[in-house]
Write a structure and sequence with these properties.
elongated
Length: 91
């Protein structure tokens, strides 16, 4: 592969552009997205914990086969929503 050498002006423009980025532009997601993600992680942990509470052999009871997996699925759906959520901007 050939190396691309930047001219001094192009290098200076890259540095100037990097310095002009505001702190809110540095983060991939907004605060709301991260809060929703934390909620999704909590749902995942609670769902897996509920699956361990089942008293039936091999987890074949209501908690292990129905309630726990539903909460885990809800946690994954929450994570999916958090990734694609975009706040509405006011003009």
């Amino acid at each position: 592969m050939a190396k691309v050498k930047l001219t001094k002006d192009a290098h200076q423009e890259k540095i100037t552009a990097a310095k002009s980025v505001t702190p809110s532009q540095k983060l991939l997601f907004g605060k709301t997205n991260y809060m929703i993600m934390i909620g999704g992680i909590v749902l995942l942990i609670v769902g897996f914990f509920i699956m361990t509470l089942d008293k039936e052999p091999h987890g074949f009871g209501f908690l292990g086969l129905t309630l726990g997996p539903l909460i885990v699925a809800l946690g994954f759906a929450t994570e999916f929503f958090a990734i694609f959520y975009k706040e509405k901007t006011t003009v």
